[in-house]
Structures are given as structure tokens and as C-alpha cells.
Write a structure and sequence with these properties.
The protein is an alpha/beta fold and 250 residues long. The chain contains 10 helices and 6 strands, in the order H-H-H-E-E-H-H-E-H-E-H-H-E-E-H-H. Strand 5 and strand 6 form a beta hairpin. Helix 1 crosses helix 5. It is globular and about 55 Å long. Bound molecules: uracil (URA).
Length: 250
């Protein structure tokens, strides 16, 4: 059995959905790929945070940007201060920009920083399985993060970090024009709605207004959190079913 199917069945089993008894998957180890060749982005430096002058940050001029490609280029060219110093590259998006569903996560981790794509590490793999369980493949969603650069030592984002990335995120949503936002984890939920406490707000539909358009937005447990708290997968499953219902009405 193909390992994607096996992991989808494992997800179903973990949320209590009956699945047929299937033999264990044969594990084939992926060949190690060489690290991607660095492009013309500046290499990560080990400069201490305090030495980076905040005056380097200038508000990005995004009003003339009309395409996602142009937005990506603007981010590649942008000096995001401490974020650019420690990250290898900005992490833009993954999936189908025409999809109804836009997934908004927290911040890139190590794998995402290396490959320049969001949600490709262990949490991303679980997210794919969760979305796969409601029949959404990579063509059915478009994913990005509230923070586009890997944070120093993977720390939580500060209000300054969020403010640095916010204009890019708003432009990103405005250009992609999704029908629904899926807010992955508490940091994304708070950044987009102002609500705090993912335990009490997950699965509760919210309205988020960006550039004059109001989007239905669903906070969901972060898959990294579910990896530590698998007993919460049942709640996440209910939230995913609510997402599926919503998508069917649009
Ligand atoms: N990877 C991402 O791109 N975002 C997250 O929130 C977690 C992992």
C-alpha cells in the first residue's frame, strides 16, 4: 500500500473512523537529496539581534503589486531586518493559488526555511493528511504563514515580527482571493482575529476583513500541537468536517 494512503488511514483510525485492517506499509527510505543551491539571497548571518538597526526596516510599497509572482519577488528583495538575517529565504506559499481554501499557518520551521515552501516538515505532513481526510489534496488549498521568515531559534513571533509580515500577508490574501481562511494554531488565529485561546475558539467560525473583503475563517488546532496531544485529534476531525461543509456551500 502506498504510504500516503496508509498515513491517511492511520489518521482516520486515530479519530475513531472505522478503517479496514490493512497490512503494514513497506517503508522505502527516500534518497537523500542535496540541499538546494543557494540563490542570490544573502546568506544567514550570526549577527546578534541587538546589533541589527531597526531603521533598516522600511514599509514595503505594495500598492502597485498586481500578481502573486510580483509579491513573491518583492518579498525576496525585501530586507525584513532580523528575520532576513537569520532565515535563508522568505517562505511564500504552497499549493494552488486559485483554490477556495487559503491555509494560514504560523511560521516556517527548518525544512520550510531550506526549501522555501510552507508546511513541508512533520507538522505539514500531518496537515496534508488532515486535509486529505476531507478529500482535499494539494490542488484544493493554498498555504502560507503569518510570518514569512524562519524566526531566530524558532522563537515565538513578537508583535514587531507580525507587523513586519502583515502587509505582505494582507496583500497575499487580497491577490489570492480565497473563499475561506483556515487559521492554523493560536498564533495565526490571534493575528487574524484578535481572539486568544485556541482551546476555546477552535472550530468556531469567525469573520476576517482584509482590504474590504470579509472572509469566513476557521481556527484549527496546529498539527504540531496535535502531534503532542493526539487525544485532541477527534476535536480537530469535527472542525475539519465543519470546514468541508462550508466549502461545499461555496
Ligand atoms: N510550517 C509552516 O510553514 N507553518 C507552520 O505553522 C508550521 C510549520
Amino acid at each position: 500500500m502506498d504510504s500516503a494512503l496508509r498515513s491517511l488511514l492511520d489518521w482516520y483510525a486515530s479519530v475513531g473512523v472505522d478503517v479496514p485492517n490493512v497490512p503494514p506499509a513497506r517503508v522505502s527510505r527516500p534518497k537523500k537529496k542535496p540541499l538546494p543551491v543557494q540563490n542570490n539571497l544573502s546568506p544567514a548571518t550570526s549577527k546578534p539581534i541587538a546589533e541589527v538597526p531597526s531603521s533598516r526596516l522600511v514599509a514595503p510599497e505594495l500598492s502597485k503589486i498586481r500578481t502573486l509572482e510580483a509579491l513573491k519577488e518583492a518579498m525576496n528583495a525585501y530586507d525584513a531586518g532580523v528575520l532576513s538575517d537569520t532565515a535563508r529565504q522568505p517562505v511564500f506559499a504552497r499549493g494552488n493559488p486559485q483554490a477556495k481554501l487559503m491555509v494560514i499557518g504560523e511560521a516556517p520551521g527548518r525544512e520550510e526555511d531550506l526549501q522555501g515552501k510552507p508546511f513541508i516538515g512533520p507538522a505539514g505532513q500531518l496537515l496534508d493528511r488532515m486535509l486529505g481526510a476531507i478529500a482535499l489534496g494539494e490542488d484544493d488549498f493554498y498555504a502560507t504563514n503569518v510570518i514569512n521568515w524562519r524566526l531566530p531559534k524558532n522563537r515565538n513571533p513578537t508583535p514587531d515580527d507580525l507587523a513586519t509580515c502583515r502587509p505582505f500577508l494582507e496583500k497575499h490574501i487580497e491577490l489570492a482571493q480565497p473563499k475561506v481562511l483556515l487559521l492554523i494554531g493560536g498564533i495565526s488565529m490571534t493575528a487574524m482575529t484578535g481572539l486568544t485561546g485556541i482551546m476555546k475558539n477552535h472550530g468556531e467560525w469567525q469573520n476576517v476583513t482584509i482590504a474590504g473583503t470579509t472572509y469566513p475563517a476557521l481556527p484549527l488546532y496546529h498539527p504540531a500541537f496535535l502531534l503532542r496531544r493526539p487525544e485532541l485529534k477527534k476535536d480537530a476531525w469535527r472542525d475539519l468536517l465543519s470546514l468541508r461543509e462550508k466549502l461545499l456551500t461555496l
